[in-house]
Write a structure and sequence with these properties.
- The complex is a heteropentamer.
- The longest helix of chain A is centred in the middle third of the chain and has 18 residues.
- Helices cover about 30% and strands about 20% of the residues of chain A.
- Chain A is globular and about 65 Å long.
- By secondary structure, chain A is of the alpha/beta class.
- In chain B, about 75% of the residues lie in helices and about 0% in strands.
- Chain B contains 12 helices and no strands.
- The termini of chain B are close together.
- Chain D is an alpha+beta fold.
- Helices cover about 25% and strands about 20% of the residues of chain D.
- Chain D is built from 16 helices and 22 strands.
- In chain D, the strands form 6 sheets. A 7-stranded mixed β-sheet of chain D has the order 8-9-10-1-11-20-12, with helices on one face.
- Chain D is globular and about 75 Å long.
- Classes of the chains: A alpha/beta, B mainly alpha, C alpha/beta, D alpha+beta, E mainly alpha.
- Chains in contact: A-B, A-C, A-E, B-C, B-D, B-E, C-E, D-E.
- The structure holds adenosine-5'-triphosphate (2 copies), magnesium ion (2 copies) and nickel (II) ion.
- Nickel (II) ion binds next to loops of chain B.
- Chain E: Keywords: Cell membrane, Membrane, Transmembrane, Transmembrane helix, Transport.
- Chain E: This is Peptide/nickel transport system permease protein.
Chain lengths: ~325, ~325, ~350, ~525, ~325
């Protein structure tokens, strides 16, 4: 695998301050490599979105970054910690380096501005020297890149279908040639047919443009097909991280296993579906030890007592690039 | 243009309703209007004069309501609102025409300025929650709870006086002849300042508050986050994304609450003896000048309708979703 | 349980409970602008000529993309909308009640579960209120307080919300999504219906909770021999939980048959597209651009639906005929049919 | 504020009447010219009549001479011949006759309702003939102003004419009109010596408060307005110059009883009330110590204007507070007390509802005082503040128990008594359209005396009738008179002197009355 | 009611009901508003009894400033202004509440019906409320009340109530429209509930916040209207004191010019305070309905560098490197 573009180091994200704080993301370490699609999965409330917004510092109040670093590696080898950027630096950094595509495209596009305005104002903000004509040209280019005819430039968001809007968002995300695109459930509101169209297009573009993708969804079967690597979150922590195929074929963490056995498969033999018993943890009253232990079919003594650390499991070689946080799989 | 058409239909209907209501108002009066006029004179008129007044007004109660109604419409279409009692035999339309410009200027300008400033402050307050400007909110709440007229009274008590820059009443210096010269305009502005400030203080608070709340709501919308994520300059995000959207409900709120605002501002005119419709209304009430009251009510309603329509048009321009094609 | 208790469970599994024949629903579109002057009212042809049968003890899945008219079918079956045309037969008898006593009698037998468990329970009422109302409306609350209490406990037990006292006095917001959906199901069961119309009962639920609710539905089917209409857009879940599957496209049923057959050997090009598009973990990193353009274009407008086969503008196998003639159902194999000219045997 | 004032020959007059519309019709008291008073300096009366003065109260003006004959059924005016209209035409007897014809032919203009019959002009004389004696209407006829025939004959509807360009014989002509201020300038060619005032500005202030402020700051130098606590608000601001003078005229305000409602049909009860009403409080608190002057003669005739008319037996009879006497009067006439409560002869507690328009603050105050006073003799009163229309209607139809109201005024106390006691005006309770006698007072003797007075052939008969009327009134007390009607004003002697006052009672100091012209002519710049 | 607060009853917000009461009072604005309102209502009840003088009783202390005998001074008739203020509270509160109740009932009837039912009747009702909304209410009220032969508190309240329901009806209609297609309403229908039961038991309870905020808005409007009417002399009937009557007398006796500030300042302040109390209550409701509006305690945080920054959208503050409060 190629080198890292983004390194998340022991990132903590809270909602609220002091004793009332909800620790929505805890001690997350994650590396995004150049050109890869990193999938982030986990059930609702596990902290996926919080992580994504937290690392870009877009989390609205009462969210705060309680600690950690997010190191961005520039092409020239320089690094910058997003957490230490000033507002102005952040503004310059955003979109030029990391773009975000949100879940609901209708809500991501400003309903009162034309598509063209929304495409060009970001170019203008980062390249004030550009001419309106060149900006418009770029906007047109981006639209055709995502398969929308340029005459849609003058449309307002409400005049486009859901799929088209989502594509506009993707086009907008790519307008400044960012190194990283973060996508938070970009297709859950869409139809499977359109979902496939859009994601197919995105893969194409990635191959051509070479950006990295952090892809968030709770649809594991989609992730497995779509991403290179997958990280599974539970209760605000990463519990397993591995190449997609490894997770699918040989998940180590019982929670990953449970997730995978919650999806009916369309093709192939009928698998047995076991699901995951119990309900997601309450972030305010997290179980001790491994947060998953109350629901874990394989829980044993240490699970309730101690927090398992994420690491390369003993049973695997370090070269395999997978980590897990489970007492069943002691780490090196 | 469906939206526009629907609105137009609505305005036509409302105008009709208001006019019809207006027709029935004097028909609800106990006794007859002339009696009120006589009463008003209070000793300045001998009781023998009554007879002559009946002759003057030529009241004919023996007509069917229907034909009266049609007659009324006919008169309206000719711009004839009847004769004022107080200023007999002046036409009500003439009396109102004299007062209307003042109200339009005072109420119109202050309402718009109040809306603009209030919205701007509300935008800032909502955007910078917790900053000093947000601390304005309780103060403005208190101010907006004060009835317009009382604030006006206090302003008069505190700020006017023989040596004060602010005159205590009237629309312009006595002795000046309304004219488009600087002396007159300056005087009119000087006289309008205090009432205007009163209206501004009272009315602005509402806008600040609703705009602030809308801003807080809108600031949490995804597209605002996206705008931040796009690295747009803060001003652009605040104005182009957050405020632009937060404004929409405020504009339609503006249109709808015009009726309330006008009601409130009329009182300011009363307190400041400003020669506008509000003061005329007050005079009309005091002297039971029903034709005048009717006329004022009609004109106010129609003006509010018109203003509403303008606000609607503004809304249409602001919100592309209402501009849906065919 | 009235009629059903007399029959043996063997024969019961095939007994038709609810039938829809040529069900059609057109919603008028609000007139705009100049149209006000014209006499023609435009219609959203949300559901067109849909026929289906629900059998005792069987789950029938209705799949299709968003906006294809699935919910409308369910609501028509529940008599929540007046229908434009067609017939609904309960135990072979046509029903027309949309209000009043007759509707109540109908709703006793046909109950509906809504897509969103977060929205289908009134936030201001407790679980007890919801269930008590369901029982009371259908006179199943019993004479005494105890009867009612027993009935409530029974209901909660049936949807595996045990112990009942832990849930009975809770407000919806105090329950998890899965629990809420169970309460919604319990409410439907409160009428002791024969038919359950489940409109996307799990699409709003978390992956790990979905399964529990679906398993519960299956369990109910097996224990209570309910006829269940399972509406979803997740065709994979239809494969797993439904005995039969019908596929809708733009207000029409385009294919139907045994679930396994429909999902594994889809006949209609739309079904094929749908199945092709569904994420497939076995095809790891399979998101490369496929050679063939997958179903280009957008779902059709239902106000001016395409003539002939409604899928023809997007269909890779489109023929001249598709553009003009509406394809009828063609039987492909036992119970498996598709409304597509490709299967017109006479043509060949 | 604007205080660039009158030293340069300008007199600033103010009235609290709100913005005006341009209407200079001198006949209509709704017109701006009448409500602000500037009609008085444009149009001139035939005779200047001073109603505050008893006797010797007429002075020739446009008419050099006038003569009544035929027991006040005929009058001959001799018109001056050096008078010119402001457009230069001469004022002739024809103009005078035409003015009276206008009044006769247009009841809408004839707000005094004088019944003119024959009108004839010959030479410089105008002769008017009447059906009945006009003794009681003398003032109205003498005071009539004159309009130019050559202008008014062109008006098709004089009753709704707004006379945009008034032509008068007075010393001033209209210069500019704005809703707020009307400016008049002294004209050339006035028949008398030109007034010292070169320009008059009539400003219509929006309300009493604004008018008071204007007076207090000197922006207005002459006005007629009610000022509560006038010392504090007005005169104290410049005690040397700021003056007010409100002499009474022959009209009154009083508490009218509905004499058809028991127990108020009982004259002893009414007289008892008269004995406890505190007129001092009413004068000082309700009328701010000046506005409607106190009337304390028991006959209700305001003094000094009515002095000559008061019967010898009542000359010094003052209405004074006498609670004990009142109680005695009551208990002596069938009324009883149960504790503090007065019961009428039938045993019912005596109560009264006093009706008043809600916004009339002085009346309300007066009634509050009366209510308190009534408590002293065990009568429970309620002040019912009604809507003005409702109040007017209640009085019109007799649907009230007690109410404050005014009477007409004139050149004799006849108008007062006629308003209160005339049986000719009587209409039964429930019937409206009444022109006075709101109390439904029925006494043939009073009616006869009134008619006697109006038509008496000579002064002796008139005196007799007047004495009779006073006797009936004092005996029956159909209304309790509280205050006199006034004809006064506030003025400042800072820039102009020569105003009428207690020492020099040549005219009532009200800018809207006919006498305003007289005052204007006499004002001189302060040295 | 110049504040057009758009009440946004999002389903998520409407969900929390149980904790409602406590949470509502926990809101500092609501708590202050509630306390102030409580005092006003208490005064409305006991005011006339505890007032030291008969508010109409005259004395010889004419236009005197505040003193030990007359805490807020006297009028031109020597009446005790403090007593007038106390006694006047009842009328103000009564008219406000009564008009509020009338308008709220009307707006409920009209708003909810036109929202829930469809068809011409509903459209007609909606058009009616729009008409009433646009017609300026205060001039209409002034004209109607000045025409009425006799005005008591009740008639005033009636007139205000009958003319000021439109705003509420509109808001309620919009809310009902959005609730009407909610699943739980449909579900209730599918269960077999009757229409009226759905309206009363399923829809109305979810409108409580809107109804309450609307009620308060109308009360504010009614109070100011009543006072305005009294002030311009339309309603000074009977011996019924209200704050507007005090101001009317102050104005007609030119208290300002007389320097009798005690005559009009307390009444005006009382109005402003009552208005503030009601406005605070309304904020409480707004914030309660739309949690986003709630002030979230601390708005400033200390960052790594020891700077204090404001929490705001778009720039999440970074507290430090490592969670400090972690054991
Ligand atoms: N403003 C907030 N205050 C307190 N807790 C919050 C807030 N916002 C989110 N949370 C909590 O933080 C946790 C993580 O939320 P997050 O949105 O990141 O989950 P997610 O994994 O993205 O879920 P989903 O799949 O539903 O989008 C959740 O348990 C949520 O309840
Ligand atoms: N009340 C209505 N008035 C007008 N059109 C309607 C109405 N209800 C549904 N429709 C339209 O009918 C069509 C079918 O809607 P329906 O809700 O049945 O689709 P669906 O298959 O259930 O979709 P989803 O998967 O999104 O729930 C859609 O185009 C929708 O816009
Ligand atoms: Mg999320
Ligand atoms: Mg649906
Ligand atoms: Ni000035």
């Amino acid at each position: 695998m190629s080198d890292a573009v983004l390194e998340i180091k022991s990132l903590d994200v809270d909602y609220g301050l002091g004793a009332d704080a909800v620790h929505a993301v805890q001690d997350v370490n994650l590396t995004l490599h150049r050109g890869e699609v990193l999938g982030l999965a986990g059930e609702s409330g596990s902290g996926k979105s919080t992580l994504a917004y937290g690392l870009t510092r877009l989390l609205p109040p009462p969210g705060v970054i309680a600690g950690g670093e997010v190191i961005y590696h520039q092409d020239n080898g320089d690094t910058a910690d997003i957490m230490r950027m000033t507002d102005a630096e952040l503004r310059r950094f955003r979109w030029a380096q990391t773009a975000i595509v949100f879940q609901g495209a209708m809500n991501s596009l400003n309903p009162v501005h034309k598509i063209s305005t929304q495409l060009t104002d970001v170019i203008k903000a980062h390249d004030p020297a550009s001419t309106p004509r060149s900006r418009l040209g770029r906007a047109r280019e981006m639209l055709s890149l995502v398969g929308i005819s340029a005459d849609r430039l003058d449309s307002y968001p409400h005049q486009l279908s859901g799929g088209m809007r989502q594509r506009v968002m993707i086009g907008m995300a790519l307008a400044l040639d960012p190194r990283i695109v973060i996508m938070d459930e970009p297709t859950t509101a869409l139809d499977v047919v359109i979902q496939r169209q859009i994601l197919g297009q995105l893969i194409d573009l990635r191959e051509r443009l070479g950006f990295s993708v952090l892809f968030i969804t709770h649809d594991l079967s989609l992730l497995v097909e779509f991403s290179d690597r997958i990280a599974i979150m539970y209760g605000g922590r990463i519990v397993e991280e591995a190449p997609a195929a490894d997770i699918y074929r040989d998940s180590l963490h019982p929670y990953s296993d449970g997730l995978l056995h919650s999806f009916p498969a369309l093709r192939g033999p009928r698998r047995e579906l076991t699901g995951i018993p119990g309900s997601p943890p309450d972030l305010r009253a997290m179980p001790t030890g491994c947060a998953f232990h109350p629901r874990c079919p394989k829980a044993f003594d240490p699970c309730a007592a101690d927090l398992p650390v994420l690491g390369v499991p003993e049973s695997h070689t370090a070269g395999q690039q997978r980590t897990v946080a489970c007492w069943l799989h002691p780490i090196h | 243009m469906s939206y526009l058409l629907r609105r137009v239909a609505f305005y036509v209907f409302t105008a009709w309703a208001a006019i019809t209501l207006n027709f029935f108002i004097p028909r609800m009066i106990p006794g007859d209007p002339v009696q009120s006029l006589i009463t008003k004179a209070r000793g300045q008129m001998t009781s023998d004069a009554i007879a002559s007044l009946y002759v003057l007004f030529g009241l004919d109660p023996k007509e069917s309501v229907f034909s009266q109604y049609f007659k009324y419409w006919g008169q309206l279409l000719r711009g004839d609102l009847g004769l004022s009692f107080t200023f007999f035999p002046s036409q009500v339309s003439e009396v109102i025409g004299q007062a209307l410009p003042w109200t339009l200027a005072l109420v119109g300008i202050t309402t718009v300025i109040g809306f603009v400033i209030g919205t701007a402050l509300g935008t800032l307050a909502g955007w910078r929650r917790g900053s000093w400007i947000d601390a304005l909110i309780p103060v403005t709440t208190f101010l907006s709870s004060i009835p317009y007229f009382w604030l006006g009274l206090i302003a008069i008590a505190l700020l006017t006086g023989p040596d004060s820059f602010f005159p205590a009443g009237n629309g312009y210096d006595t002795g000046l002849v309304p004219n488009w010269d600087w002396e007159f305009i300056g005087s009119a502005v000087q006289h309008g300042l205090l009432p205007a400030i009163t209206i501004l203080i009272s009315s602005m608070a509402g806008w600040i508050l609703s705009m602030r709340n809308m801003m807080v709501t809108v600031a949490a919308e995804d597209y605002v986050t996206v705008a931040h994520a796009k690295g747009l300059p803060e001003r652009r995000v605040m104005v182009g994304y957050a405020a632009r959207n937060a404004l929409l409900p405020n504009v339609s709120g503006f249109a709808l609450s015009l009726g309330f605002i006008v009601g409130g501002t009329l009182l300011v005119e009363i307190v400041f003896s400003y020669p506008g419709l509000g003061f005329l209304l007050y005079q009309g009430v005091g002297s039971k000048d029903y034709p005048l009251l009717q006329g004022i009510f009609l004109i106010i309603t129609l003006s509010v309708l018109l203003a509403n329509f303008v606000a609607d048009l503004a809304y249409m321009l602001l919100d592309p979703r209402t501009r849906r094609e065919g | 349980m009235t009629a059903s208790s007399m029959k043996s469970s063997a024969s019961a599994t095939t007994e038709v409970v609810l039938e829809a024949d040529g069900l059609t629903k057109h919603f008028p579109v609000r007139k705009r602008g100049r149209e006000v002057l014209s006499r023609v009212t435009r219609m959203v042809q949300a559901v067109d000529d849909v026929s289906l049968t629900l059998r005792r003890g069987r789950v029938t899945a209705l799949v299709g993309e968003s906006g294809s008219g699935k919910s409308t079918v369910a609501r028509l079956l529940a008599q929540l909308y007046p229908r434009t045309a067609g017939e609904v037969k309960l135990h072979g008898k046509p029903v027309t009640a949309t209000s009043g006593k007759r509707f109540r009698a109908y709703s006793r037998q046909v109950q509906m579960i809504f897509q969103d468990p977060f929205a289908s329970l009134n936030p201001v009422h407790t679980v007890r209120y919801h269930l008590t109302r369901a029982l009371k409306i259908h006179n199943r609350a019993g004479a005494s307080k105890e009867d009612l209490e027993n009935a409530l406990t029974g209901l909660l037990a049936r949807v595996q919300l045990t112990p009942p006292e832990r849930y009975i006095d809770k407000f919806p917001h105090e329950l998890s999504g899965g629990q809420r959906q169970r309460v919604a199901i319990a409410r439907a069961l409160g009428a002791d219906p024969e038919v359950l119309l489940a409109d996307e009962p799990v699409s709003m639920l978390d992956v790990s909770i979905r399964l529990g609710v679906l398993n519960l539905l299956r369990d109910l089917k097996e224990r209570l021999h309910l006829a269940i209409l399972y509406i979803t857009h997740d065709i994979a879940s239809a494969r797993y939980f439904a005995d039969e599957t019908m596929v809708m496209y733009a207000g029409r049923v385009v294919e139907g048959g045994d679930s396994e057959t429909v999902t594994q050997q889809p006949a209609h090009p739309y079904t094929q597209l749908l199945i092709d598009s569904a994420p497939d973990p076995d095809q790891i990193a399979g998101y490369r651009t496929s050679e063939k353009d997958r179903g280009s274009g957008e779902p059709p407008s239902l106000i001016n639906p395409p003539s002939g086969c409604r899928f023809h503008p997007r269909c890779p196998h489109v023929m001249e005929r598709c553009k003009t003639d509406l394809p009828p159902r063609f039987d492909i194999s036992d119970g498996h049919f598709a409304a597509c000219w490709l299967y017109d045997k006479e043509k060949a | 504020a604007n205080t660039k004032s009158a030293s340069n020959g300008v007199l600033n007059v103010g009235m609290p009447n709100g913005p005006q519309t341009e209407n200079n019709n001198p006949f209509l008291n709704t017109s701006a010219s009448r409500s602000l008073g500037y009609a008085r300096v444009i149009y001139e009366p035939l005779v200047m009549y001073n109603e505050v003065k008893a006797g010797d109260n007429t002075a020739p003006w446009l008419a050099a001479k006038w003569e009544w004959s035929d027991n006040y059924r005929k009058i001959v005016f001799t018109i001056r011949d050096n008078v010119k209209w402001s457009d230069g035409k001469a004022l002739t007897a024809d103009d005078v006759a035409y003015t009276f014809q206008l009044l006769r032919d247009n009841p809408g203009l004839n707000t005094d309702s004088v019944k003119y019959k024959d009108i004839a002009a010959s030479g410089n004389q105008v002769t008017l003939g009447f059906e009945a004696s006009q003794f009681v209407n003398q003032k109205k006829i003498l005071e009539q102003f004159v309009v130019p025939k050559h202008q008014w004959s062109t008006f098709s509807a004089p009753t709704t004419e707004t006379v945009k360009n008034p032509i008068g014989s007075g010393p001033f002509t209209l210069k500019t009109f704005t809703p707020q201020t009307v400016t008049l300038t002294a004209r050339e060619g006035y028949w008398q010596d030109a007034p010292a005032i070169k320009e008059m500005r009539y400003t219509s202030y929006t309300d009493n408060q604004a008018q008071t402020t204007a007076l207090a700051t000197g922006a207005a130098e002459w006005s007629f307005v009610f000022i509560p606590n006038y010392q504090a608000v007005y005169t104290s601001k410049d005690p040397q110059h700021y003056k007010l003078w409100f002499p009474p005229v022959l009209g009154i305000h009083g508490l009218w009883f509905n004499t058809k409602v028991a127990p108020w049909d009982n004259k002893f009860l009414r007289r008892a009330v008269n004995m406890v009403v505190n007129r001092d409080d009413i004068f000082l608190q309700g009328e701010a110590g000046y506005f409607y002057p106190k009337v304390d003669n028991i006959t209700g005739i305001p003094t000094p204007a009515g002095e000559p008319f008061i019967a010898p037996e009542y000359k010094d009879k003052k209405a004074t507070m006498d609670v004990a006497g009142a109680k005695q009067l009551l208990t002596g006439n069938g009324f009883t007390y149960a504790g503090n409560v007065l019961n009428d002869p039938t045993g019912k507690p005596v109560k009264i509802t006093l009706t008043v328009p809600s916004g009339w603050s002085d009346y309300v105050t007066d009634l509050e005082i009366i209510k308190d006073n009534l408590k002293d003799i065990g009568i429970e009163a309620t002040v019912d503040k009604a809507n003005q229309d409702a109040w007017a209607k209640a009085l019109d139809t007799g649907d009230f128990q007690g109410a404050l109201h005014w009477t007409n005024n004139g050149n004799t106390p006849y108008d007062i008594y006629q308003s209160i006691m005339d049986g000719a005006l009587f209409k039964p309770v429930g019937t409206g359209g009444i022109n006075g006698n709101f109390g439904r007072y029925e006494n043939p003797a009073a009616t006869a005396a009134l008619s006697e007075y109006a038509n008496a052939p000579d002064d002796a008969a008139r005196t007799k009738a007047m004495n009779e009327l006073q006797k009936i009134f004092v005996e029956d007390m159909p209304a309790v008179i509280t205050s006199a009607a006034n004809a006064g004003g506030e003025y400042s002697t800072k820039n102009w002197t020569g105003w009428p006052d207690g020492q020099n009672q040549y005219a009532p100091a009200q800018p809207t009355l006919e006498n305003a012209l007289d005052i204007v002519m006499r004002l001189k710049p302060a040295s | 009611m110049a504040t057009p607060t758009i009440v946004d009853a999002t389903p998520a917000a409407a969900v929390k009901v149980k904790r409602q009461r406590l949470r509502f009072v926990a809101n500092p604005k609501a708590a202050v508003g509630l306390t102030m309102m409580g005092i006003f209502i208490l005064l409305a009840i006991i005011g006339p009894w505890i007032s030291p003088y008969d508010p109409s009783a005259r004395s010889n202390a004419l236009v005197e400033g505040p003193s030990a005998e007359h805490w807020l001074g006297t009028t031109h008739l020597g009446q005790d202004i403090f007593s007038q203020l106390l006694s006047g509270t009842r009328s103000v509160i009564l008219v406000g509440l009564l008009a509020g109740v009338i308008a709220t009932i009307l707006s409920l009837l009209i708003g909810v019906t036109s929202g829930y039912l469809s068809g011409t009747a509903a459209e007609g009702l909606s058009a009616l409320s729009n008409v009433f909304l646009v017609i300026p209410a205060l001039p209409l009220i002034i004209i109607i009340t000045s025409i009425l032969p006799k005005t008591t508190d009740v008639t005033i309240a009636l007139v205000i109530g009958l003319t000021s329901w439109a705003w509420g009806a509109r808001v309620l209609r919009a809310q009902t429209l959005s609730l009407r297609r909610r699943d739980y309403v449909e579900a209730a229908r599918a269960t077999g509930e009757s229409t009226w039961r759905i309206i009363i038991f399923e829809i109305m309870p979810n409108l409580t916040a809107v109804i309450a905020s609307n009620f308060i808005g109308t009360v504010i409007f009614a109070v100011t209207s009543e006072i305005t009417l009294a002030f311009i002399g339309v309603n000074t009937s009977g011996d019924n004191w209200n704050w507007g009557t005090i101001l009317f007398w102050a104005q007609s006796q030119q208290a300002l010019a007389q320097g009798a500030w005690w005559w009009f300042v307390p009444a005006g302040l009382a109005i402003a305070l009552l208005g503030t109390a009601l406005a605070l209550l309304n904020f409480g409701i707004d914030e309660f309905v739309s949690p986003r509006l709630r002030g979230n305690g601390k708005s400033k945080v200390k960052t790594v560098d020891g700077d204090t920054v404001r929490m705001r959208v778009g720039f999440t503050p970074v507290l430090g490197f490592g969670r400090k409060d972690e054991p």
